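Chain A, query sequence.
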Amino acid sequence: MPKKLMVTGRKATQKVYITHSGYPGGFKSKKYSMMMEQHPERIIEHAVSGMIPDNRLKDPRMLRLKVVAGDKNPYEDKFKTK
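Chain A, predicted structure.
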């Protein structure tokens, strides 16, 4: 997956993923490069989540999304071309 996932410009060094738990001191940030090493599939999940409208269908739609990091895909047999 890391070989196939590419970003343009200086995003690889400048992009930051930010979260906040709601508690004082609950601010967390993670750089793109660190996210790429630890959880590359979450980059795609975060991008798709941002494209889906925030309504009651968002959670079921995100559950249907399957992102696989690496060459071994457990769903490969379902999508074979004849």
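The CA atoms of residues 28 and 58 lie 24 Å apart. The beta strands are 16-20, 27-31.
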